[in-house]
Amino acid sequence: MREKEISADSSNKLWNFFASVRLTVIILLSLATTSVIGTIIPQNESPAAYFRQYGEFFYRLFNALDIFDMYHSWWFQFLLLLLTLNIVVCSINRLSSTWKIVFTKNPPFNLSKFKNLPDKEEFTDNRSPEQLKKIYESFFSKSFGHRRIEDTEKGFRIFAEKGRWTRLGVYFVHLSIILMIIGGLLGSIFGFEGLVNIPENEVVSSIMLRKTGEIQKLDFGIRLESFNLSFYDSGAPKEYRSTLSIIENGEAVLKQDVIVNDPLRYKGINIFQSSYGTLPPPKITLTFKNRETGKEFEKNAGLGEEFDIPDGGGRFLLKDFKGSFNFMGHNMGMTFIGTLTPVSGDAVDVFLPVQFPNFDRMRKGALSVSVADFKHRYYTGLQVTKDPGVFIVYVGFLVMIIGCFITFFMSHQRICVEVTRSQDRSKVMVAGTANKNKMGMHMKTRKISQGLIGI
Amino acid sequence: MNSSNLLSIVTFVYGLAALLYIAHWLFKRPLPGKLATWTAIIGALGNTAGIILRWVESYRLGVGHAPLSNMYESLIFFSWTIIIVYLFIERRYKNRIIGAFATPFAFLAMAYASLSPNINDRIQPLIPALKSNWLIAHVITCFLGYAGFAVAFGINFMYLLKARDAEQKSRWLDHFPDTDVLDELTYQVIMFGFLFLSIGIITGAVWANSAWGSYWSWDPKETWSLITWFIYATLLHARLMRGWHGKRIAYLSILGFMAVLFTYFGVNLLPGLHSYATN
User: Fold this and answer.
1) Same domain, A183 and A268
2) Chain A hits for B213, Cβ within 8 Å
3) CATH numeric code, B1-126
4) Do B230 and A36 touch (CB under 8 A)?
5) Among A395-399, B55-59, B211-215, which stretch is predicted with the lowest mean pLDDT?
6) Does B196 touch chain A (CB under 8 A)?
7) Of A39, A232, A400, the CB nearest to B63
């Protein structure tokens, strides 16, 4: 028995802990403060980069605290969990009393409360209370949903109210946050985010996940039909456009262009334009020119290929290709890199920019090498994501906007009008209260009172 | 006349309006107040015309887009939202002294846009990432939010001045609204700002999801807007549920406005996806 009491007591304490708004304030400020860290320390970079930047001690410290991926760290997630619990418990705690107020058949009116309001309006009307009663009744029936009329000894009283349901607005806001958190969780558990590069006319059916670097297979293939790039006159990029086909069972089932801000969505998978680059054709034509004899030799080769240079010039390895290559601060554009090993002497690296066929002559070697121009291919870099939580998050967004609007700008308004006979005339008192925005309600009461004088 | 010239003139009109509001406050005469209102309205019309003209000019250049795409254009729009929010409050609450503490922000934003050498007022074509209908919704709502917070900051400043003068000695403050009116007004305007900041963050998230494939990626600007949101959410809860009033709320409001300024200007110093807003 005693144990039960103790456990009931401690669970009560726990409940009250989570029901406190002080906790809300602390959590919100903690979230605000800690969030700053991740905007100052770049997130998710390579360990080597961090090591260089912060030195060993801070690297180890930050690493231990998950600072380098802080928005996914256990302690940040823990704060979010606390916030969720706090919101849920607070809302449950308060909802029952709000519920009783909102869903009552006979809303109570406390006459003395209205009479004690400091900013009530009073005026006299030349008509009798009997005349006024009908007029006022129809006045209030226009804009107040609930009305009650009581006859008094010397006249009558009207209670009118509206917007009782707006007391629920704040629960919509809280619900919206819970929805966003649930949607976010769903996305991080069942969704993925990855990148894939596809050369023109090629098909891929798997992508590399951004976080882990693992390969994720897709249920279909994506073929890049073509990639188009356009520029403004100023040279700034105007549009990146990938024409993609979705391939299922070897057949194209859907063909669509993807540009930035206009992704392709297929079977719950979203495909976004993210980057692009250039690729050489499988074989290019290399020209070797002997400086002394002026003789030229041509050779077709592919990347990674090593071969004997014709006429006993040594060996050549076509090592690498760069879509854009920086040489002493100048952008050379598409450039091949090769290793030239003469019959006698040391191997040298040669740089072969496609746009500048004479570039290698400046090396003043016995042989100068150039690459004949070719039609390059593009590859497109696509971001591929799946997020089954997005719908719930979006519902959360909508509920939040509606909820905030209700909470901030609508209120439960109550008006009391008392009319008392004084000789042939009527003394009228108008008083109004609202659960929010007292200043606004005061102005509204005055407006209603002026409206009553006018009719 | 091109839009840049027109907007430079508007800068001076706003400066004049701010001076007239200040004169109205210091000399306690209604005439400068009335003149101030008319000057502010003329400025707002000029500002509107400038924005429309710039929009038209961008179409003439063949790169047509809403003028909301870089720092210069956002500052111009920021001034516009501040003036509109302020004029609305003036009309509603019939007090012009607030103008002395709100319109200088519109002037400062405009002057910074027109005069700072770091800010380029040329019309630039849109980069692919910004080509979206969400651009307009996102920028308009964010800046309505920022404008709300800026005006709230001004009113809050009045509150702090008035609250320090508890014995009502200062001649400069006797035409100020009462402290509880200022306190309530700050709160009302902050709620307006909060609603629009929320919509701004949400439209940004939806846009990010259609451009980059994820609605939230903790990029510094996103994170800072969320930090701002957390601070104002704290303020609203502290006031509504714990009955905080007066100075404590005022300090939170100042903290919130600092976060707004950092979200707007400071984040550009940090690396991230919003880098196009830098110049």
Assistant:
1) yes
2) 193, 263, 270, 272, 383-385
3) 1.20.120
4) no
5) B211-215
6) no
7) A232
- Dihedrals phi, psi of B3, to nearest 5 degrees: -65, -35
Which helix (DSSP H) or strand (DSSP E) does residue A206 occupy? strand A203-209
Q: Can you name the residues that pair with A383 across neighbouring β-strands? A: A195, A272
Burial label, A34 (beta-carbon count in 10 A; 0-12, 13-18, 19+)? middle
Last residue of a domain, one of A38, A61, A96: A96
**Nearest CA of chain A to the CA of B128: how many Å?**
6
Rg (CA), chain B: 19
Facing residues of A22 across strands? none
Query: How many folded domains does chain A comprise?
Result: 4
ipTM of the modeled complex: 0.90
Collect all residues of chain A within an 8 Å Cβ-Cβ radius of residue B181: 439
Residue A5 scores a pLDDT above 90: no
- Shared domain for A205 and A354, answered yes or no, is no
Range of the domain at A152: 104-163+411-454
3-state secondary structure of A21: helix
CA distance B197 to chain A (A): 10
- Judged by DSSP in three states, A262 sits in strand
A394 interface with B at CB cutoff 8 Å: yes
Residue B15 vs residue B180, higher pLDDT? B15
Inside any domain, residue A168? no
Residues A16, A47: one domain? yes
B18 vs A331: which has the higher pLDDT = B18
What does the DSSP 8-state code read for residue A420?
E
Whether B163 and chain A come into contact, CB under 8 Å, resolves to no
What's the average model confidence in pLDDT over A288-296?
A: 84
Q: Residues, chain A, total?
A: 455
Where is the domain boundary, A52, A80, A96? A96
Q: Cα–Cα distance between B50 and B24 in angstroms, integer?
A: 28
**pLDDT tens profile A251-260:** 899 999 999 8
- pTM value > 0.90: no
Of all residues in chain A, the one with the smallest CA distance to B267 is: A39
A108-138 as b/e: b if 16+ CB within 10 A: ebeeeebeebeebbeeebeeebeebbeebee
Distance separating alpha carbons of residues B154 and B51, to the nearest angstrom: 25
In chain A, what residues touch B184 (CB-CB under 8 Å)? 438-439
In B, minimum Cα distance to A397 occurs at B202
Tell me how crowded residue A212 is: count the other CB atoms within 10 A of its CB: 10
Query: Of B150, B164, B161, B156, which Cα lies nearest the Cα of B184?
Result: B156
DSSP of B15-35, one letter per residue?
HHHHHHHHHHHHH--HHHHHH
